[in-house]
From TrEMBL:
CDD domains: OAT_like. GO terms for molecular function: pyridoxal phosphate binding; transaminase activity. Its cofactor is pyridoxal 5'-phosphate. Signal peptide: none annotated. The lineage of its organism: Bacteria, Pseudomonadati, Pseudomonadota, Gammaproteobacteria, Alteromonadales. The keyword Transferase applies. The keyword Transferase applies. It holds the Pfam family Aminotran_3. This is Aspartate aminotransferase family protein. Belongs to the class-III pyridoxal-phosphate-dependent aminotransferase family. It comes from the Bacteria. Keywords: Aminotransferase, Pyridoxal phosphate, Transferase.
Amino acid sequence: KVSPDRSAELYRKALTLMPGGCSRNTVLRSPNPLYAESAKSCYVTDIEGVTRVDFANNMAALIHGHAHPKIVANVTEQLNKGSAFTLATEVEIDYAEHLCSRNAGFGKIRFVNSGTEAVMSCLKAARAYTGRPKIAKVEGAYHGLYDHAEVSQTASPANWGDESNPNSVPVAFGTPEATLKDVVVIPFNDAERAITILDKHKDELACVLVDLLPHRVGLIPASQEFVVALREWTTNHNALLVFDEVITFRNGYGGAQDNYPVTPDLTAMGKMIGGGFPVGALAGRSDVMDVMNPLNDKVLFPHSGTFSANPVTMVAGLTAMTLFDREAVAKLNALGEQLRSQISEVIAIADVPACVTGDGSMFRIHMKANPPKNYRASFADAKESRIRTALVDYLFDNGFMMINTCSGTLSTEMTGKEINQFTQVLLDGLRKIKPLFSS
Ligand code: PMP
């Protein structure tokens, strides 16, 4: 067992080397992040020797937990053969075939290296296909770091503007004014207002980008009415409909879109389809995907990436997704349903103004009595943030790793046992933080 000060010591050194002491803000915790030693199944052990049940799953990217024996075996075999070449590999074709077989709307597919890159490539493909400059997105939705995709998630309510016509506000200082002008922001699950806004830009919009279960918007499912309205509008105005299924692809065999009576033109994927390795992909209508075809006389969107479709990711992804068959998807979604219902029960028992949202194998606990309907409503003020951090810390100290918004995802390694353990500790945690609601 390592000294409990070891993580603090490492972090002091990390602070001298990286801004904030890390390369991804999500690993930060107060007073210092903990460092991972190893992980197996749904358990992660830190360098202090403490083991926790992992509901964070590398920010929803691990569908089979850690070090799944089949993934480890197949990746090891590939590593021994080489990790990346300036040649294509057969496994890329096998994996493309597998993913396209899961969704009738996936005529063609291309692999990239992250969710950010997948969304960016969809937006660029949409612009190339339509010859139009603008993209529309839901207020507050996170779609990665591409300039246009990251607009409108500011944490300063003063900048939000009118709820029925949200401002196009930057996240990163220095975002060009021109970028903001090319992003049209629509309110979530409000078809009428969204359509009124889209109408104003109808000849300039390349696409509408939507996440069907957006985490930062509150992890509430997009309504059928909203999604159908966006599909009809985009079809009628020759714009494309793009789904960001970077996280939500886990919720259906062919993605969360299986639950909606529409087919998008393009779908961005990432996270779990890499089987634990960095990945992204975009798939959809063959004629749209063809803007990337270098064999065309005129290549509308030249598209490449040094590590795209590297065989390690392809082998890991194909193994993971083959294991995540229809039966596994249904079983995991049922476990998610059970978890959300047990969480609701313990919230009622603890009698605190909290609630749970989510769908499929995803959940989020809000320090609010009622499920928020959009980004503005799900926004946690200073007091709620304080209470939420207290709960996340309690869960962490008692053996459960969460995403810091008090969200989590399930892995196929989990069973009713971990769910029951979690809800028991959650009940204790809710009782502990209860006085904070009235302080
Ligand atoms: N879209 C969504 C919905 C996401 O949740 C994320 C990552 N959290 C991204 C895009 C960006 O993916 P990545 O971090 O792999 O770039």
